[in-house]
Amino acid sequence: MTAETPSMPPFRDASLPFAKRVDDLLTRLTLDERIAFLHQFAPAVERLGVRAFRTGQEALHGVAWMGPATVFPQAVGLGATWNEDLVRRIGEAVSSEARAMRARDDRVGLNVWSPTVNLLRHPLWGRNEEGYSEDPALTSAVATAYTRGLRGDHPVYWRTAPVLKHWLAHNNETARDTSSSSVRPRVLHEYDLRAFRDTVVAGAVAGVMPAYNLVNGRPNHLSPYLREHLRAWTDQELLVCSDAGAPSNLVDSEHYFDTHEEATAAALLAGVDSFTDHGTDGSRITARVRGALERGLLTEADIDTAVRRQLAVRFRLGEFDPDLDPYAGTGEFDTPAHRALAREAAEQAIVLLKNDGLLPLRPGVRLAVVGLLADECKLDWYSGTLIHRSTPLEGLYERFGAEHVDFAEGVDRVRLRTSSGRYLAVPAVEDPPEEPRDGGGALDPALIAGRTDLPPLTADAVGTELALIDWREGVLTLRAPDGRYLSVADDGFLRASADQPGGWVVQETFRLEPSAAHDGGHLLKHLGTGGYVCVAADGVKVAGQDAREAEVFEVEFTERGEDAVARAAASADVVVVVAGNDPHIDGRETEDRTTLRLPAHQERLLDAARAVNPDTVLALVSAYPYAVDHTGLPALLWTAHGGQAAGTALARVLAGDVSPAGRLPQTWYAADADLPDPLDYDVIGGRQTYLYFEGTPLFPFGHGLSYTSFAYTDLGVRREADALTVSCTVTNTGTVAADEVVQLYTRAVAPSVPRPRRELAGHRRVGLAPGTSTTVTFDVPLTALEFWDVSLGRRRLEPGAYELLVGASGEDIRLGATVELDGEPGAFRPVRERGLDAADFDEQRGIAIVDRTRTTGDAVTPADGGTGELLYRACDFGEGVTGVVVEAAGEGTVEVSLDGGPVAELTVGGTRGPYDHRTLTAAFTAGGVHDVRLGLRGPVRLAHVGFSG
């Protein structure tokens, strides 16, 4: 035992276990101090020498929002590398830069909110760029690698403490704080939980962040799965940090509780330990916690539980042992190694989707580089500030020589003529001032609303030619000749003041709306404020949302973008069209996409290039898949926005300096008609993702071509006690050194329930010189072949035949073998003893899963309050039952049928709300094994069906 001394209380004694030190510090904190720790910005406790602490530092693909930092490819691009070693090294670099930045700026946090492990189920999700893959195994493999890099390899202290986002089943932005993901048990256990589980079990995760949405009618910030699953996966104390503003949403938008005291108490009891709400002002949260204590909704022990979890993270980060913290002196920032790593990552993320022999480009070729992203290095909401940058045009200039490269951006050039005959004009500014930055080098937050240190637009007889860019469905940006985008500041004036569109509310986007009063005229609507542009004596400004106050503009085109593209393409040997999205405009946080199609403006540019030059390469630089008609197109590549080295990497791949080896981390669908509704989270019933999709994709999961060829031979399968070992030989049969991504899939041959068409069980990225071979081995635990058996409420390995398929993508299988496995035979549902939990259905039509109570359990209801149907197969009634017992709330009817024939009907009514479940009984005679169908009519909420007699 260590005796306490005045100079070293036990929480300062590094010889003691962290748990004892946390307990000691807790006893020294007053109740007010402990309550204050529950807010994201925990204040210092000066009397104990405890520093202020902030949960949350964004670090998705580099340190974000805190000024200059190394910017790596977007997360979906890192997923496309299929390379855990690379991603681990990136995590090490990012966390090293976080430590180095922290040393000079206390605002930089070490509790990093990254990575995002939400699965890329639906490609129209606005935050597609933040996830790794639609597959849980690939997602967890990449996420585990990144968290290990972020954590560091010291056995005691962590370099940074990663928090996984966003728990749980979060894959839509539209109405994200009020929509509910209906997730059946099989999807929950086989799909959505799996990416979190495998990453947490790997041991380098400090916690999770719940998502804004609801799951099965219950907000994620009250998720019982935090207790039932997350904290059961590990003995380590995990910190649960709320998403920004989500605690208030429980009352303000979701109306789940009547008071904030109730909501705060419920979130804390569910497992939320840190409340991210009201910015840096912790007073409202602390007042709510105080109110909950006074009302008896919380105890001090509940508060201590949450504070203990937070302190456990702070001790692991070395805060209380600065002399022992091995990362305290980390100064690695923007090093040559980090710059090289950024380029390596950008190169490995590039996916060659199609190549009819045009690539790699031959030496001496004359290029036309065209398109809206040809000379752009786009950032997203979770990027740091670029220290270095490389656009595709710059990369190709560097690689092929500027004299061999022509450029046409392809923007429409216009003048906007006012109703008085004058034109919008951008005042000339000599040596425009630098964008204001704060002391840490970050852009001043006031810039989100635009700058006011430049003169506003005016109108004169000549005007200014503006670049008009239609990013999607009429959403425009307007750019001055000096490259500055038109933006709107807090004072309402338009200025050419932004380097790029950006900010939480983008102030650089507009829409031209036809004028009802003036034939051929248009109103210019500013999308950030919803107001219309008018021309006033003191400058051009946004007047308000009354169209009658708006200026009427005539759009005079001085050049069409496709004409400039056609001129450049006609004189080139090969055209490189660079198309894609601006991550702040088309698909982003708070905004889903509406279509897979390439925006119309960019389709026109591609068509213009192809019309005059068939040797056209389309390079898509985007945060998500597109549905592109590539008929007759000789070459097609895709890369996510690749960070600071994106242009150099693309040029090196086009030139053949690097053979592409990225692989698609999600299915590319051929058309919007192939997609489910964005809110249909049932990947099994909806036949979604490569696991279940039965159509023909544009490009399949795992797809990616190379500049060489590979042969697969010598498949071997060995059975161990609880695993299968699968091996094969891969040979580079071409003339180019390259990487190959070897992929192993499994498939249950004759399953008793719908199972994946094939499922990724292993992957390995290997580099091979021409003519060389390597043996690739995968260990597949038999647990990976299990499914969630709803009749048993647990996982089960079904006996029977399983295929083991090795190849270069989910649809390019080169070798296969079949094994027979013993397992646990299926059994009939013991409904006489257990009844039926309503959500444990085999099939459903028109049903949504909802919350049984505010704290736990599921019920089902017709999705639209109309009708719905549930099917439960092979229900065993034993020697017979004589009655049915229904537990339900709401109003409506429950019809019970056996093998298609109605047997009983029960009417539900008179309940006092959605959680006031009543027990209803009816005569019901059955014996033996039958399929049970339940028909629901009206807003009834069915929780359980039992049988008696």
From TrEMBL:
Alphabetically ordered keywords of this record: Hydrolase, Signal
Location of the Cellulose binding type IV domain: 829-949
Functional note: Catalyzes the hydrolysis of a non-reducing terminal alpha-L-arabinopyranosidic linkage in ginsenoside Rb2 (alpha-L-arabinopyranosyl-(1->6)-alpha-D-glucopyranosyl) to release alpha-D-glucopyranosyl (Rd). It is not able to hydrolyze alpha-L-arabinofuranosyl-(1->6)-alpha-D-glucopyranosyl (Rc).
Name this protein carries in UniProt: Exo-alpha-(1->6)-L-arabinopyranosidase
Source species: Streptomyces triticiradicis
MF annotations from Gene Ontology: alpha-L-arabinofuranosidase activity; beta-glucosidase activity; carbohydrate binding; xylan 1,4-beta-xylosidase activity
Record-linked Gene3D superfamilies: 2.60.120.380, Galactose-binding domain-like (2.60.120.260), Glycoside hydrolase family 3 C-terminal domain (3.40.50.1700), Glycoside hydrolase, family 3, N-terminal domain (3.20.20.300), Immunoglobulins (2.60.40.10)
Ranges of residues in domain Fibronectin type III-like: 740-810
UniProt similarity note: Belongs to the glycosyl hydrolase 3 family.
Any single Pfam family the record assigns to this protein: Fn3-like
Record flagged with keyword Flavoprotein: no
GO biological process: one example: arabinan catabolic process
Domain of life: Bacteria
